[in-house]
Design goal:
Two copies of one chain form a homodimer. Chain A is of the alpha/beta class. Chain A folds into two domains: about 170 residues, Rossmann fold (3-Layer(aba) Sandwich); about 130 residues, N-(1-d-carboxylethyl)-l-norvaline Dehydrogenase, domain 2 (Orthogonal Bundle), CATH 1.10.1040. Chain A is about 45% helix and about 20% strand. In chain A, strand 8 and strand 9 form a beta hairpin. Chains A and B meet through helix 9, helix 11 and helix 13 of A and helix 9, helix 11 and helix 13 of B.
């Protein structure tokens, strides 16, 4: 399977997976704004245990019209930029173009399906600890595998073909039957760790788990999310919580992406990671008092920051 | 009743009530460190609706030995300085000296009783919105009344005598039967407003109530605290929550004292306002998931800040 691939969004996720595919010989085209000059000059460098390489000549452009139709579009912009991609994507489409969102949280597939049709849609859930340490260098701290699933239907032939292509590019990959179940499983991690990392004063995963009270709140929040998933009809076992805590302990200290956004003064992915899960949980009658307060606090912090110097100052 | 009064702690609360007593002709002696020179030179000024006065000659000292024995000691230091007062207070004591803590939260009376005997102890719960706007100027935004109670016993003759003295000094004052019940009633306000004001990004009471999600979380936290008080044997009606919300809406926008401390880089009164109530709630079997997470987050923020530049940076 030889696919023409577009990567929309040149953050850590987009650069990493795009570079992996390109490094393995894939026909990959990056859409980017800020880093265009650096990447044309220096390429994209990936660092991490067992993988240190540079894609010296990355095809990159600041226009999807220049890139033209592709077979697979990897969507790796923050969910806070979803409105922008509505206009960016059409030039990349031919009749059979597949759209695979690599974004966090809930609601992205529904959004993309409304604009581009649900048949095109797949998702790749990225279980990976990455930081972009400069505009063209991405460092992987841990993990790296992707769980691929179709939107609102079981895996198809194309799903397994993409997984195969990823595997041939040294990306660990598996195919899941139920996308929404996998999204909730990932939220069991993102909701506490991404949220508490900011609210607790700027802590990485190791610092959160080293604080007895925060560790206990992490576990309690995980249980709430599991309860919500179950109420929403996506069965996740209770053991998911202690398992994820244990795996997080085994990995290197990591700053969740939302904390990285917070420190960089960027908008936070409030709605995808906390807002939409909260709405679904409450609609299903789940009791989620801790998710509710974490969402309210993050949402307020995000608004206070966006109001900027003219608004309320962050003290 | 003519009492020799010492005020230990020259923050907003100590300066305000001490100045009110002195302005009415009381024999008041202030213990203070930082503001000594300004107050000796300029006196203490109180501003607020219906009261604008300066105590030109305030008796103040940086040594309780200089002040000597008093009949009533008002304790107005932050609870985070409780360890300091163990050594400061003995020179102020004669056999019948009364200690009245004006501090927030739970656990202060028990602490003072251990060191100075429970018979001396009373508390004054300050329902007031004050900010110290310079070292010797205090502004009252709203309210002002004190609820006075004995520690671990019903009101005595002295309790009513103190209330009378306060009343003659134009301090609204009432006497309560059950100190701990009143402490919980005050915590119904302090736990959400003082906590969320910091965690939500630096908001005053009006901004908290204007944000639909925060308002809902405030109410939910209030209900948790009421539930905890009831489990601990202090009956507070459910209606306390909406009543306090309504009264807060009617008052001017106010920065809770813990937010003022936070913005000034001072230690936060975590244990008195959140820690001890949480321990008592959990010991009584109350379900307080939101109090637990708010406590964990504030405690972490306080620690991160205290670690200072050598510790983890606040971003």
């Amino acid at each position: 399977m030889s696919l023409r691939v577009a990567v929309v969004g040149a953050g850590a996720i987009g650069l990493y997976y795009g570079a992996k595919l390109a490094h393995a010989g894939g026909d990959v085209h990056f859409l980017m704004r800020g880093a265009l000059d650096e990447i044309r000059r220096d390429g994209i460098t990936v660092r991490g245990e067992g993988e240190n390489f540079t894609v010296a000549k990355a095809n990159c452009s600041n226009s999807t019209a220049d890139i033209g139709p592709c077979d697979l579009v990897l969507i790796a912009v923050k969910t806070t930029s979803n409105n922008d991609i509505v206009e960016l994507i059409p030039p990349l489409l031919h009749e059979g173009t597949m759209l695979m969102t690599l974004q966090n949280g809930l609601g992205n597939e529904e959004f993309l399906a409304r604009h581009f049709g649900k048949e095109r849609l797949l998702a790749g859930l990225c279980f990976i600890c990455l930081n972009r340490i400069s505009r063209n260098v991405v460092e992987r701290f841990d993990y790296g595998h992707i769980v691929i699933a179709e939107y609102a239907r079981p895996p198809q032939a194309r799903t397994r073909e993409i997984a195969e292509m990823f595997g041939q590019s040294a990306i660990k990959c598996s195919v899941a039957e139920d996308l929404t179940l996998e999204r909730w499983r990932k939220l069991v991690w993102n909701i506490p760790f991404n949220g508490l990392s900011i609210l607790a004063g700027g802590l990485d995963t190791a610092a959160i788990l080293a604080d007895e009270n925060l560790r206990s709140s992490t576990l309690a929040l995980m249980r709430e999310v599991i309860g919500a998933a179950n109420k929403c009809g996506h069965p996740l076992p209770e053991t998911t919580a202690p398992e994820q805590i244990r795996r997080t302990e085994e990995m290197n200290a990591y700053k969740p992406s939302t904390l990285v956004d917070f420190e960089a003064g960027k908008p936070l992915e409030i709605d995808a990671i906390w807002g939409e899960p909260l709405r679904r949980a409450m609609a299903a009658g789940a009791k989620v008092p801790q998710l509710k307060i974490v969402h309210a606090l993050l949402n307020s912090i995000d608004q206070v920051r966006r109001a900027g110097p003219a608004g309320r100052p962050l003290s």
